[in-house]
Amino acid sequence: MNATPISNEIALRIGLAARELPDTDAARLLRVLADAVGLPPTEKKLSGLTVKAFKAAQDGEFADADSVALKSALGYLKGENTLQAEPLPEIESYSEGDMPGSIRVACASNKSEMLDGHFGSCKRFLIYQVSESENRLVEIREIDDAEAEGDKNGYRASLIADCQVLFVASIGGPAAAKVVRAGAHPIKKPQMGEARDEILKLQRVIGSKAPPWLAKVMGQSPEERIRFEQEEATA
């Protein structure tokens, strides 16, 4: 007896949900869904799927999955997240030397100009050049894990090797270590939101009152960082 086919819309949901989960393709996710809701997965079955049931399915296949990525995947499965591609923000012109004293910042993103991506599953990195007086979105780097050659975290870290700061919704310890080795300072923002909002917050602390970690990534000398720390302590 032939299996009932999966509708095109449900297949799209599964594909998008799989992209939200690290090291997951549609086939792996479908095996978990078969245990969680049965085959074929339908809109009605998926609408009743809970995080608890999802994590317990297939002997806990996703029991240790990051909660941010898991909720995002479930949103796609239930049709709560938009299935249409959202327009990407416009790139702003930038040439080396345009913004003296600036740093380069990456934001893990899945849609539009949002900071909403897990390091291991985000679709792209938004790249900003940020100084004390301005910020510009200078590049959008799409991620193709097919190019990872067996080391996905290393590949993703290499994409932001020219950045000093990485904003990300969540990141695991081993991945964070590779980001640090690549030269970036990872900062988790689990609440997510507009990437530009975080960039503006960062912009406000660039300069003479930069905290020690930021002064370090900006290349300020230890003597300068100590002076700033002492000024903060006596302010």
TrEMBL record:
Any one Pfam family here would be Nitro_FeMo-Co
Chain ranges of the Dinitrogenase iron-molybdenum cofactor N-terminal domain:
6-86
Keyword match Membrane: no
User: Where in this chain does the record put each Dinitrogenase iron-molybdenum cofactor biosynthesis domain?
Assistant: 113-202
* Keyword entries, A-Z: Nitrogen fixation
Tell me yes or no: is Lyase among this UniProt entry's keywords. Answer: no
* InterPro entries according to UniProt: Di-Nase_FeMo-co_biosynth, DiNase_FeMo-co_biosyn_sf, NafY_N, NafY_N_sf, NifX-like, NifX/NifY_domain
Entry's family note: Belongs to the NifX/NifY family.
Identify this protein by name.
Answer: Dinitrogenase iron-molybdenum cofactor biosynthesis protein
Question: Origin organism of this chain?
Answer: Solemya velesiana gill symbiont
